[in-house]
Each structure stands twice: as C-alpha cells, then as structure tokens.
Amino acid sequence: MYLGSQLSNKVPVDIFQRHRDTEDWIWKDSGTPAEYRFDKIREGRGKGRTALILSLSGKIKPEALPSNIDESFTVYELTLANMEPNPTYLRQQEDLTRFKDAYQAALRTIARECGLCDAIHLFPAVLAPVAASSCVFLYGSH
C-alpha cells in the first residue's frame, strides 16, 4: 500500500499479478471474472467512526478486528460477490479494473453516509496489485 501511495495517477502505470499456477506475470484471458460486493455489516453508534474491511485474498471476520474497533464504529466490507475470498481470484486485468470501480464506489458511499470522517480504518486481506492500486486511487494526484 505504501508503494501505491507513492505512485501518481498522472503517468499511466500497469500493475500485474504473479500467478501461482503458472509462476508468470501475464494476465489470463479465461476463467471466472471477479465480481465485487459492498455491504454495511454493522451500524455504529458513533458519528464519523468508520472501518472498511477488504476481504479479497482471505476473509476477515468483524469479530477479529482490534478491540478499539468497537460497537461505536460503522463497519463496511468489500468482498468478492461470486466466489469465496482466495489468493488466486485476481486472474484478469479487468478484475483489477472492476476492483477500482467497486472501491471508488464504496468510498463515495462511505463519504456520503459518514459525512466528515476523521479517518477510515482499513483492514485489508488483498493481493499486492490491489494493495498498490487502492492507494493509487486515493493518493494518485500528488
């Protein structure tokens, strides 16, 4: 994520996934495309206290969050809609593009519902291209 925060969206950058089955960096052109789902999984009692779980390469259970992310926090989750979170789901370049669209839509929803959030506490179980991309989308306009 730090790498992604240092990249700019002013210069095109291609990010690739190293595939475990073939041990290469070439995007696949077959397989089940990833679809994403965004849900509010807990309504918090505190205004502006927000957490976002990214359950993509693995599942993060809300009860596993740090104890300071208590019932005062509204908790959202962005996960896979058409398969269980797993470390091999990111096969096609379009999977990363669809993540970008889903992530940006999720952030817009959080901003609209939260109002003025001091911070969004992010809990990612993601692959490296998603981690880097998620920060390019946030910080890319240096």
Compute the number of strand runs: 4
| Largest sheet properties | 4 strands, mixed
Please state the structural category: alpha/beta
Task: Tell me the β content.
Answer: 15-25%
Number of helices: 3
Averaging pLDDT over every residue, what do you get? 84
The secondary-structure element order is HEEEHEH
CA(first)-CA(last) distance: 15 Å
Shape: elongated
pLDDT < 50 stretches: 138-142
Q: Which range best describes the helical content: under 10%, 10-25%, 25-40%, 40-55%, 55-70% or over 70%?
A: 25-40%
Question: Could you tell me the radius of gyration in angstroms?
Answer: 16 Å
Strand order of the largest sheet: 1-3-2-4
Number of separate domains: 1
Task: Please give a handful of descriptors for the protein shown.
four-stranded mixed beta sheet, 142 residues, alpha/beta
How are the elements arranged and paired?
Layout: H1 2-6, E1 36-42, E2 49-55, E3 74-80, H2 93-114, E4 119-125, H3 128-139
Parallel strand pairs: 2-3, 2-4
Antiparallel strand pairs: 1-3
Question: What does this 3D model show about the protein?
Answer:
This protein is an alpha/beta fold and 142 residues long. The protein has one domain (2-7, 33-139). Helices cover 27% and strands 20% of the residues. The protein has three helices and four strands, in the order αβββαβα. The two termini are 15 Å apart.
What is this structure, in a nutshell?
The protein is of the alpha/beta class and 142 residues long.
